[in-house]
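This part of the workshop introduces the protein records we will be handling. An example says more than a description, so a record of this kind follows:
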Amino acid sequence: MTVERPVTIYRLLRTIRDCSAKEVADELLVSSTYIGVIERQIRTPSVRFDRAFADLMGVPEELIRSFIISENDTFATALWRLTQKMYQLGCLE
Protein backbone atom coordinates (compact mmCIF):
# COMPACT_ATOMS: atom_id res chain seq x y z
CA MET A 1 0.00 0.00 0.00
CA THR A 2 1.41 3.36 -1.05
CA VAL A 3 0.84 6.36 1.19
CA GLU A 4 0.63 9.55 -0.82
CA ARG A 5 2.46 12.59 0.47
CA PRO A 6 0.42 15.74 0.96
CA VAL A 7 0.48 18.23 -1.89
CA THR A 8 2.23 21.38 -0.65
CA ILE A 9 3.33 24.61 -2.28
CA TYR A 10 6.90 23.76 -1.29
CA ARG A 11 6.96 20.44 -3.12
CA LEU A 12 5.15 21.93 -6.12
CA LEU A 13 7.68 24.75 -6.45
CA ARG A 14 10.57 22.34 -6.04
CA THR A 15 9.12 20.23 -8.84
CA ILE A 16 8.63 23.22 -11.16
CA ARG A 17 12.18 24.43 -10.49
CA ASP A 18 13.56 20.87 -10.78
CA CYS A 19 15.36 21.03 -7.42
CA SER A 20 15.96 18.20 -5.00
CA ALA A 21 15.23 18.58 -1.31
CA LYS A 22 18.99 18.41 -0.71
CA GLU A 23 19.68 21.24 -3.16
CA VAL A 24 17.06 23.44 -1.52
CA ALA A 25 18.30 22.54 1.96
CA ASP A 26 21.89 23.38 1.03
CA GLU A 27 20.87 26.76 -0.37
CA LEU A 28 18.72 27.62 2.65
CA LEU A 29 21.23 26.25 5.18
CA VAL A 30 18.78 23.76 6.66
CA SER A 31 18.72 19.96 6.59
CA SER A 32 17.00 18.00 3.85
CA THR A 33 15.09 16.32 6.69
CA TYR A 34 13.66 19.72 7.61
CA ILE A 35 12.52 20.23 4.01
CA GLY A 36 10.79 16.84 4.15
CA VAL A 37 9.09 17.70 7.43
CA ILE A 38 7.77 20.94 5.92
CA GLU A 39 6.59 19.16 2.77
CA ARG A 40 4.80 16.49 4.78
CA GLN A 41 3.12 19.22 6.85
CA ILE A 42 4.55 17.93 10.10
CA ARG A 43 5.86 21.41 10.94
CA THR A 44 4.78 24.85 9.86
CA PRO A 45 7.65 26.88 8.43
CA SER A 46 8.54 30.27 9.80
CA VAL A 47 7.94 33.51 7.94
CA ARG A 48 11.71 33.76 7.56
CA PHE A 49 11.84 30.33 5.92
CA ASP A 50 8.97 31.25 3.57
CA ARG A 51 10.77 34.45 2.59
CA ALA A 52 14.03 32.62 1.85
CA PHE A 53 12.23 29.80 0.03
CA ALA A 54 10.26 32.26 -2.13
CA ASP A 55 13.45 34.13 -2.98
CA LEU A 56 15.22 30.90 -3.92
CA MET A 57 12.29 29.80 -6.10
CA GLY A 58 11.95 33.23 -7.72
CA VAL A 59 8.35 33.80 -6.69
CA PRO A 60 6.64 36.45 -4.56
CA GLU A 61 6.44 35.50 -0.90
CA GLU A 62 2.70 36.18 -1.07
CA LEU A 63 2.29 33.29 -3.53
CA ILE A 64 3.49 30.83 -0.90
CA ARG A 65 0.98 32.13 1.63
CA SER A 66 -1.96 32.58 -0.74
CA PHE A 67 -1.88 29.59 -3.12
CA ILE A 68 -4.71 27.29 -2.06
CA ILE A 69 -4.54 23.56 -2.61
CA SER A 70 -7.90 21.88 -2.13
CA GLU A 71 -8.36 18.43 -0.65
CA ASN A 72 -9.52 17.22 -4.06
CA ASP A 73 -6.45 18.47 -5.94
CA THR A 74 -4.14 15.80 -7.24
CA PHE A 75 -0.46 16.65 -7.44
CA ALA A 76 -0.78 17.08 -11.22
CA THR A 77 -3.80 19.38 -10.94
CA ALA A 78 -2.17 21.57 -8.30
CA LEU A 79 1.07 21.63 -10.32
CA TRP A 80 -0.84 22.80 -13.40
CA ARG A 81 -2.66 25.54 -11.48
CA LEU A 82 0.55 26.77 -9.85
CA THR A 83 2.37 26.80 -13.19
CA GLN A 84 -0.42 28.91 -14.69
CA LYS A 85 -0.30 31.31 -11.72
CA MET A 86 3.47 31.64 -12.06
CA TYR A 87 3.08 32.49 -15.76
CA GLN A 88 0.50 35.15 -14.86
CA LEU A 89 2.89 36.64 -12.30
CA GLY A 90 5.82 36.58 -14.73
CA CYS A 91 7.77 34.02 -12.69
CA LEU A 92 7.99 31.64 -15.68
CA GLU A 93 8.64 32.32 -19.33
Remarks:
- Residues 9-89 form a domain with the 434 Repressor (Amino-terminal Domain) fold (CATH 1.10.260.40).
- The chain has one domain: 9-89.
- The chain is about 60% helix and 0% strand.
